[in-house]
Specification:
Blueprint (H helix, E strand, L loop, with lengths): L13 H7 L2 E3 L1 H10 L3 E5 L3 H6 L6 E2 L7 H6 L6 E5 L4 H12 L7 E4 L2 H8 L3
Length: 125
């Protein structure tokens, strides 16, 4: 391909590949899994402002943008099941991937597919 030619090949976003390696649950399955897990830790990875506006009951706010994100995650009870969400699902995909790559048991880390946007379609305020 010459320098003047534009690459028009189909490119799949990287987050799509990351997501495929995770336990992604839609709103109903996420709700059921949280209720069934003992212990369950619900993690909202949105900003503190987003968290204050609307959150799931009992969720910890560990912002994806916090410089101490990993340190906060590292101190959680590793025997628990983790349920991670954000606004649309992209930040939570990254945090779940970080947890998996950081030694958390992948079978106990769950991502809310579609985030709060999907959740509020199913469970409005």
């Amino acid at each position: 391909m010459s320098m003047n030619q534009k690459d028009t090949s189909c490119k799949t976003p990287r987050w799509f590949f990351l997501k495929a390696q995770l336990n992604n649950l839609g709103p109903d399955a996420f709700k059921e899994a949280v209720e069934a897990a003992e212990p369950a830790i619900l993690i909202d990875v949105r900003t503190p402002k987003e968290y204050e506006e609307d959150r799931m009951e009992g969720a910890l706010n560990i912002s994806y943008f916090d410089e101490n994100l990993w340190e906060q995650l590292e101190h959680l009870d590793k025997t628990a099941s983790f349920f991670v969400y954000c606004r649309s699902g992209r930040r939570s995909i990254r945090v779940c991937t970080l947890m998996r790559n950081g030694g958390f048991d992948n079978s106990k880390v769950f991502n809310l597919d579609g985030g709060m946007l999907a959740w509020r379609k199913k469970y409005p305020l």
